[in-house]
Structure formats: structure tokens, C-alpha cells
Amino acid sequence: MNRSNPSRNRLSTWAAGWAAAIAVAAGWWHTLVQRFRTALMPGDPERGDVPGWVMITLMSAILVAGLLVLVQPALERLFESAIEQVQP
Known about the structure:
Layout: H1 6-40, H2 50-84
């Protein structure tokens, strides 16, 4: 008869749990190292500065909105004057 040893089963379960934990930690470590490597040496040197472009776009939109507030009455008068000059 083949009897299994309960303490040996507990040991193999414990070892399998630690092996799984080590595998997860190794995968996490590998991902972390790859991210640091990518951050330090980007693959495309002409990738560009996305936050800088976002800031330029935002500043341009604010500038246009500010100018529109200042010149809107003059633009309305100019438009109404042009419409009045149109002959039906």
C-alpha cells in the first residue's frame, strides 16, 4: 500500500507557494527594471516634449479667448456695418 506522508504534502505545498511568490516577484522586478531602462534611454530621440506642446496649445487658446473678449464689440460693429451695406 502506498501511503502519502502528510508532513511531506504540507512541505511541497509550502514550497510551491514560495516558488509562485518568487516567480511573481521576479516578474515584477523585471518589469520595473525595463521601465527604468526605458525612462533613462528612450528608444526614439526625436519623440518630442508632449507636455510642452500641451502648454503651448493651452496658452494660445487663452490668448485667443482674451483677445476675443477685448475686440468682440468692435467685431460686432464691423459685421453689422458690413451686413447693412449689402443690397438685396
